[in-house]
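Progress against Task 2.4 (sequence-to-structure conversion) is shown through the following example record, which the project officer requested during the mid-term review.
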Amino acid sequence: MSLLLTTALLSMVLGAPVAQVVSSSGTMPPQQVQPRDPTAPVIKGTGAIKGKVTTADGRRPIRRVQISLAAPELGENKTMSTNAQGIFEFTELPAGRYMLTATRGGYVRLSHGQQRPGEPGRPIPLTDGQTVSNADFALPRTSALVGRI
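Structure tokens generated for the chain above:
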């Protein structure tokens, strides 16, 4: 198939003039590929939320506790684990209201501000540039009663 016939066919298919479809060298110009699933823009802020997770009596830090941070401003949830001292810190947060949840096997799952299991937690209000450093958790151990009659 000749170059002229190829360019004419491409011009008909793409609906653009022949000069726009094929460059002067006879090769097709590279096309820009659009992403299949557009991603939401990442919003970075200057706020931070940090805290410590301890046992219910407050005596020992608990490591490897999964901390989940949720807010409409994020577009998605963020998670991290506490370090060996039970400390966690979320940085570069935009202003908003954030819900924190702490989870670890063998301990009761709690939301920040929750007084007892089953009650709702309280969101943490955060302004731009603010650091909330008292988002602490005191996790009670889970327990079960087992018996036989």
